[in-house]
Amino acid sequence: MNYKTQMEAAKAGFITEAMKIVAEKEYRTPEEIRDLVAKGQVAIPANVNHKSLSPEGIGGGLRTKINVNLGISGDCKNYDMELDKVKMAIDMGAEAIMDLSNYGKTNTFRTQLVEMSPAMIGTVPMYDAIGYLEKDLLEITAKDFLRVVEAHAKEGVDFMTIHAGLNRRAVEALKRDKRKMNIVSRGGSLLFAWMEMTGNENPFYEYYDEVLDILREYDVTISLGDALRPGCIDDSTDGGQISELIELGALTERAWAKDVQVMVEGPGHMAMNEIEANMKLQKRICHGAPFYVLGPLVSDIFPGYDHITSAIGGAIAAASGADFLCYVTPAEHLRLPDLNDVKEGIVASKIAAHAADIAKNVPHARDLDNKMAEARHKLDWDEMFDIAYDGEKARRYFETVPPKERHSCSMCGKMCAVRTTNMILEGKKVEFCSEK
Question: Counting CB atoms within 10 angstroms of each CB, which of 67, 109, 394, 405 has the fewest?
Fold first, then answer.
């Protein structure tokens, strides 16, 4: 029996090859994964045309996944640098890559990305509309937007951010609540401008069923974009954000009815004390669908360090129910990230995701941490470097100011607490002054 989507197969009781792979990665049974996909609580973004994909599950009870944003912009048209970022992201274990290219004919880069990447590929068709259609915003028709969605689906994109919740009702809520930052979503702002200039309803909302038919044909997961996400901590949890979230909950059920897998996107910028409540509210309103968050950034005054403000918020968010973290780099709010920025962003997001997995008791999340503790107990530096996420950096730091003997590091020397305790427990005498 041929099934169009992972969800259709799951509802019919059929276990796909992708479900088997995800089950093995997550230490779950294939039947458990199938049941979660059928309920919409787990999504396996896997376009039928993405042949190099190594499938991943996103959702409740699974490891927290991270996404890396990259792409070509008008101010930085370096395709080689973007491909170097792709290779780094794959090598560092990013489970997803979003191509946010917004300049020129982007399909060449995107096609190459799909061909080479075992990671999931995501896009925001709204970004690409002007370049792909070669029309100015006011000249684009509702049906034109759907043409871009279909083009991305055919190319093998696994999930797409579609800002379908920004309808007239949500816009009215935005206008009533006077925000400091208004709309900070790039795709959301373009849609808002198109709606205001033309007087029309959001085409992704008005023709939502047609969008779903396209996505279903290629088994593309819809990532319901949060056009009204807060862009500063003062705008969080306001009427606009919650109004759109209510729309996204209804759109989630409509997608599931057509066997289209769903993720829902969330904030944004948000004070730490609001994060847990927002995660629980989203899961409730959106019926347990996987939640994909940018940050949240817990402060607005640390440009150059926003990978850290994001990782703090991301760890709290994921521990409170978020399933998928979008990385943020030190270049956020400042420029297109370079290769080192991308690395810093990936590491920060991986720390947040891993810390949350430990807090959520995800199966085997603590395994490497326990191995690291054992290696540190033995003062086995080579084993520590092998276990470390970035062992090369750890080794480089250790060797920069090397100790005379490898019984400790240069911070404590022979006063190392681990060394002292080990010696006493082994019946040895600890001496310092007698040594010349």
Answer: 405
Distance of alpha carbon 160 from alpha carbon 134, whole angstroms: 21
Say how many domains are in the chain: 2
The token duo for 316 is 């709290």
**Prior bond of 296 cis (ω within 30°):** yes
Name the amino acid, one letter, at 301: I
In a domain, 430, yes or no: no
Residue closest to 147 by CA, chosen among 135, 138, 158: 135
Q: What is the dihedral of CA 326, 319, 166, 259, to 10 degrees?
A: 90
Specify whether the CB–CB gap between 147 and 154 falls below 8 A.
Answer: no
Nearest to 263 by CA among 96, 25, 17, 432: 96
- Please name the residue that has the structure tokens 């681990």: 418
Q: Are 326 and 67 in contact (CB under 8 A)?
A: yes
Q: What are phi and psi of 98, to 5 degrees?
A: -105, 125
Six-digit token string for 129? 């509309």
What percent of the chain has a predicted confidence (pLDDT) above 70? Answer: 97
- Using alpha carbons, select from 421, 412, 411 the residue that is nearest to residue 430: 421
Measured in degrees and rounded to the nearest 5, phi and psi for residue 410 equal: -75, -5
Q: Decide if pLDDT at 435 tops 60.
A: no
What tokens does 263 get?
């993720």
For 367-390, the pLDDT digits (tens) are 999 999 999 999 999 999 999 999
Query: Which secondary-structure segment (H or E) carries 99?
Result: strand 96-99
Reported as a single tens digit per residue, the pLDDT across 325-342 is 999 999 999 999 999 999
The range of the structural domain enclosing residue 268 comes to: 6-359
Tokens matching residue 315: 């760890």
pLDDT tens digits, one per residue of 194-235: 999 999 999 999 999 999 999 999 999 999 999 999 999 999
Q: Are residues 352 and 371 in the same domain?
A: no
- Which one, of 96, 13, 43, lies nearest residue 219 by Cα? 43
Residue 40 falls inside a structural domain:
yes
Contacts of 257 (CB under 8 A, 6+ apart): none
